[in-house]
Amino acid sequence: MHACDSVVKILVVEDDKDNLDILQELLDGEGYDIFAADNGADAVKLAQDEQPAVILMDLQMPDFPNSGLNNEAGLVATRDLRSDPRTQSIPIVALTGFDTEKAGAAIMAAGCDAIANKPYDFSSLLETIADLIRHR
Amino acid sequence: MNSTDATASIQSSIIAIGEIMASLQTDLAGGEFDRKTLASVERISLSCTKLREYLDSNSEPPEHSSDTRHDIRNLLNRIAGPSQLLERRFDDSKLAAIHRVRRLIDDCVAVIDRCGDDSRELVRALESHSIVAAATTPANILVAEDDAENRRFLVDFLTSEGHTVTLARDGSEALAQAEQAGFDLLLLDLGLPMIDGFDVLEQLQSRGWQTPVIVITGRRGVDDAVRCIERGADDFLTKPIQIEILRARVKSCVERIRLREREFGQFFPPKLARQFARRPRLIHELPSRHAEVSVMFCDIRNFTTRSERLGPEKTTRWLRGVMHDLCEIIIENEGVLVDFAGDEVMAMWGAPEKVPDHAARACNTAVQILKHLPAMSLAWYPTTRAETELAIGINSGRAMVGHVGTARKTKYGALGDAVNVGSRVVGATKFLDSPLLITGGTRDQLASDWSTGQLRRLCKVRVKNIEQPIEIYDIRIPTEHTIDDLAVRYESALASFEEQSFDQALSELTQLLAAHPNDGPAAVLKARALKALAPDAHEFDPVWRLSGK
To answer: Which terminus of chain B, N or C, has fewer Cβ atoms within 10 Å?
Structure first.
């Protein structure tokens, strides 16, 4: 029994609708099959059900829209994904606006496989995604 | 930079971008450009407007509010995104304009970065929510460092983080300690006396050491550190050691061992998985020997027909989900997952570690799986639109066990008649109409007071290439109603059948079926009895010859 692997699925977790649209346009153009979640809980469930090849995770999503208080929903979701055997081996690219020098080690220690800084450099983001898929 | 400056600086960059877009729009209006290009340009203009509105209306200056910085970064991304999409569509004449846009965005990002250090917040959040802590459990760390003060610093820091630390003061001590099992990480100073760090590393490599190594070096030793990494070290730290970097790197290395533990944990029980995660070579060193084992085969029934109906995507999801649950139950019961091939999983008890109650464990696991089945079937119903059914066969006996994979693929398994019989027995579930069958060999190994399920002798079978007929039993899952006499009555009918008192057998079976209309094996035996009575019956043999799988 072979799974139909010709379309690669990517889960994008991003609460900002416009940014999500941009990522979708970019990734669609590359032939990936994109589906999205705008909060951590949905992201984990979707990852379990759909088993994407890669997850792009905005680390700075609020737990509640506009709360501005807890911008850590992305981190919590990452931890949940890493501790569930169904999803623990799916590579995660952290999408973040932080200065990578300082926060990079901490982000990787939280379980992410790569980091993309906002505003994104699309060419390197695409390369990173292709690399992660190739080396699964 | 005060708030007016930051906001003003960003505003002026955005105005400049807006002007570029306006002039682009004029250019494009005259020419032949596709919708997407025009859409991107429009999007950039719109995003510029939005960002300017945000800056105008937002009273929180970027210096004082990380939320504002977050919002601005998001808004900048909305400009950066389409501009990069444009880059891919424009020829040289327009590219200069886009490059300018990129530089202006970079300027804005630089301004934001100067306003505040959000990364500190992130690190704090990670720690306060124990998110990084969740990625790290306390580890067993070997520290090889000859400088007393440095040693003390490392010991203090690592123990305060909850880890257990062992010390080595020179290279030969380091090697001796490393031989003791169970380290999750080695912190290795390159300037060790006796045998230096690089040589220690070389020696460890040749012994198959796979635990992460972080080498520590002085500022001038970066080249040495790079040599070590090329030799197999995972990372390096320069002195003076910064706590945050040490912490993050330790955590990331320990996480890697945990990951390997989880990988081996897919096949082996936790204790063995932990050992193999540190020395994967151990698997190859496991002796090949004869062992008394119990093997269990578990198949998904009707898999091929279902998969044709469901198509590849749904089938794979269903298969993975079911396999996941089966494997969890097997590992929980300390079984070794030998293999999964398509819709079948094979597990083993009794090797590599001798386990006296291997038969009971296999049977208990099977019962647990069948008890879990209704919930699993229900969970997958929306995908499969049908019940999920399993067939399980267990046999016990002597097998040859060992590492039967290659250097690339780990496979610890068993070979021999005992295994072949087990695989035939699961096939027999179809003919005998009972989902969980075990052999006499397994039955004999169960303690007389084994009561996890209800045992019943079903019949004797003959399997190809094996001379001795094999007793088959089934196990029924206990419910409140299983204090019944079904097993006794069936076995009595079976005895009549084997003595060729077919009428007697038939009458007993008919009565039994009246009380238990859904009992598959009774119906099967009844059919066999009828067939034996038929005028054209062949010579009777109570032993059922099983055809191929």
So the answer is: C
